[in-house]
């Protein structure tokens, strides 16, 4: 089980080197613009045109996927992701797992707008969230966000609940981008597919 900061730091170092040599094809894949079918998804949104800059200047974060929803008629599936720009959280991913556990039994608190909004995001299958800041009472004072990310159907068989890498920078975009496994460090990939991550 990986709980130390060495895994994240090693992966972060590898990614910082890797992104300097990305081809146009690589950038298109990460940004979801490879092929016509993918390229037209979201092209009317502002975030769509910020993806290149997000890849170039964004931070590698470890997101904790704790929920997904799909049906036979859905192409892109929603994934509920907890993540943080904080080095403390990225280097101690157990914190994300603990918050995910808290959310699994989350009940709405009457009269509290944030609690009601969070309850809605957690219970409605087609909810949308980008950088929804979780209450400190749930995160033990850590800055942790919830985003619901729609990922392409061909990635479904590889994506597992638990830790997954994303690129994020709220100053550039409200979107976070999933980083496909061909861009992972060898050690992270080995741990991921051997089910050794938390």
Question: Any chance you could write out the topology, listing elements then pairs?
Answer:
Blueprint: H1 5-18, H2 24-30, H3 36-39, H4 51-57, E1 59-68, E2 77-83, H5 87-90, H6 94-104, H7 113-123, E3 132-133, H8 136-139, E4 145-151, E5 162-168, E6 177-178, H9 186-193
Antiparallel strand pairs: 1-2, 1-5, 2-4, 3-4, 5-6
> What's the quaternary structure here?
single chain
**Strand portion, in percent?**
15-25%
Q: What radius of gyration results from the CA coordinates?
A: 16 Å
- Net shape: globular
The structure class reads alpha+beta
Terminus-to-terminus distance: 6 Å
Beta strands, count: 6
Spatially, the strands of the biggest sheet line up as 3-4-2-1-5-6
What ranges have pLDDT less than 50 throughout 5 or more consecutive residues? Answer: none
Order of helices and strands: HHHHEEHHHEHEEEH
Structural descriptors:
six-stranded antiparallel β-sheet; alpha+beta; 9 helices; 198 residues
Question: Could you characterize the architecture of this molecule?
Answer:
The chain is built from nine helices and six strands; from the N terminus they run H-H-H-H-E-E-H-H-H-E-H-E-E-E-H. The protein has a six-stranded antiparallel β-sheet with strand order 3-4-2-1-5-6. Strand 1 and strand 2 form a beta hairpin. The mean pLDDT is 88. It is an alpha+beta fold and 198 residues long.
């Amino acid at each position: 089980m990986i709980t130390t900061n060495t895994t994240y730091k090693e992966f972060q170092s590898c990614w910082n080197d890797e992104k300097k040599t990305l081809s146009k094809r690589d950038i298109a894949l990460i940004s979801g613009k490879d092929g016509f079918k993918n390229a037209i998804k979201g092209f009317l949104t502002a975030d769509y045109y910020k993806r290149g800059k997000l890849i170039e200047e964004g931070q590698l974060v470890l997101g904790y996927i704790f929920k997904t929803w799909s049906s036979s008629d859905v192409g892109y599936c929603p994934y509920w992701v907890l993540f943080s720009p904080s080095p403390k959280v990225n280097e101690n991913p157990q914190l994300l797992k603990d918050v995910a556990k808290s959310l699994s039994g989350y009940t709405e608190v009457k009269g509290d707008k944030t609690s009601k909004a969070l309850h809605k995001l957690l219970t409605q299958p087609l909810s949308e969230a980008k950088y929804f800041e979780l209450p400190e009472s749930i995160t033990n004072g850590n800055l942790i966000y919830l985003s619901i990310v729609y990922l392409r159907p061909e990635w479904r068989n590889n994506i597992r609940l638990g830790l997954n890498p994303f690129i994020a920078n709220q100053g550039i975009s409200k979107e976070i981008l999933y980083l496909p496994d061909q861009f992972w460090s060898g050690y992270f990939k080995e741990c991921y597919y051997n089910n050794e991550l938390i």
